[in-house]
Design a protein that fits this description.
CATH topology of the largest domain: Rossmann fold
CATH class of the largest domain: Alpha Beta
Strand content: 5-15%
Number of domains: 3
Largest sheet: 6 strands, parallel
Radius of gyration: 25 Å
């Protein structure tokens, strides 16, 4: 009984704090509403915090921080929020917010492989955004193992997270287990999309990016072959392969798939061994190689160097090699790797905002949202 009284006191205290910071009492709200009606300045009724963020132009993480602690945001942001609260006559569901925060402020972040610098970088960005939204990030890696991925979901269930941001393994994931989890816990997927699982998906537009690279390589030299793993771990590889074939046919070239053996996430080793095999067996019908990802390309470059082949754009070079993803080490290879960059910042920001919005909204999304960000061509020394 005492615990219930304390909880009620927390909620009432939070209500009074927000009223003092720009959230009106019922009497004040009625007075201001009547004033706006008389002057013809009434704005549309805001039903939930997601709509409030949209009309006010203030990000969800900033709003979350404000409603948790108004003093935690900059004075300029606080003034904007309080002006918007008054203008749109919006009062958040304080009871629900306190109930959620009293239960948990943990947000799970799951990636396939923490040792992969690509996932380490995007996880770092998401961690900062989750903290900025007033939550505690819990970072877990699957180590490329589907059993570990399911184990991570069970670990998160045990701590009752407010929500989860997940980049699934993909082809070897258990989709039904992930679907069941997402039905119980607010979940947003990023990087890898699995069917229609999760309330939202945020990722890279693989089709747009692959087309841009194919166009560039065909315009500046011989048309490329597509160098990939025969059974890739990441579903994005299939999307890139399919787009490569479509673009090459549209440009009047025959697609050439060079598929090498290899399993798991040791992509550099697979690329190294694969390059040696295709060069020794003369399996390249062209001098231009488009690798499915940067890590394969890094292994390919190393093997080419060991075999005495020059890679680059200049006269006398034997091969041109390009990748995809803008791996953090791609700018330090020799030659530097021509690639497509993913917008790490936008993917991380949009994923975090989508999840926090889902956690704090008064109702679930009516439809699953899919957001894709374009890639950018980085022309470097290798192609």
């Amino acid at each position: 009984m005492q615990g219930s009284t304390q909880a009620a006191g927390i909620i009432v205290a939070r209500q009074l704090t927000l009223q003092g910071k720009g959230v009106c009492s019922d009497g004040d709200k009625a007075t201001k509403r009547n004033k706006r009606k008389k002057t013809g300045l009434a704005d549309p009724k805001i039903k939930n915090m997601e709509q409030f963020a949209t009309v006010s132009g203030i990000s969800r993480p900033t709003l979350s921080k404000y409603f948790n602690d108004p003093g935690s945001v900059r004075k300029s942001s606080r003034s904007r929020i309080e002006a918007a609260l008054e203008r749109y006559d919006y009062r958040p569901n304080i009871y629900a917010m306190n109930q959620n925060r009293r239960l948990t402020k943990n947000i799970g972040i799951m990636v396939p492989y923490l040792a992969d610098p690509f996932f380490a970088e995007i996880a770092r960005n998401i961690e900062a955004l989750v903290r900025g939204g007033g939550y505690r990030p819990v970072l877990l890696g699957a180590h490329g193992d589907p059993a570990q991925e399911i184990g991570n979901l069970e670990t998160l269930r045990a701590i009752k997270p407010a929500g989860v941001l997940m980049a699934p393994l993909g082809r070897i994931s258990d989709p039904e287990a992930i679907r069941a989890f997402a039905e119980d816990v607010p979940t947003v997927l990023f990087d890898n999309q699995i069917a229609d699982i999760g309330a939202a998906y945020v990722g890279h537009d693989n089709a747009q990016a692959t087309k841009m690279m194919c166009d560039y390589l065909c315009r500046t030299g011989e048309p490329p072959v597509f160098f990939e793993m025969r059974t890739p771990s990441n579903p994005n590889a299939f999307r890139r392969r399919n787009t490569y074939c479509e673009v090459m046919e549209a440009l009047g070239h025959k697609p050439h798939l060079v598929q090498v053996d290899g399993e798991g996430w040791d992509f550099e080793s697979i690329g190294f061994r694969g390059c040696k095999y295709v060069i020794e067996n003369e399996l390249l019908p062209t001098n231009t190689v488009l690798c499915s990802n940067d890590r394969l390309a890094i292994g390919f470059l190393s093997a080419a160097y060991e075999m005495g082949l020059r890679v680059g754009n200049s006269r006398g070079c034997d091969l041109r090699v390009a990748g995809h993803d803008n791996h953090p080490y791609s700018r330090y290879t020799c030659p530097t790797l021509t690639t497509i960059s993913q917008d790490y910042g936008a993917i991380a920001r949009t994923s975090a905002e989508a999840l926090i919005g889902l956690i704090e909204s008064d109702s679930p999304n009516e439809a699953r949202n899919v957001t894709l960000f374009d890639g950018n061509l980085l022309m470097r020394g290798s192609a």
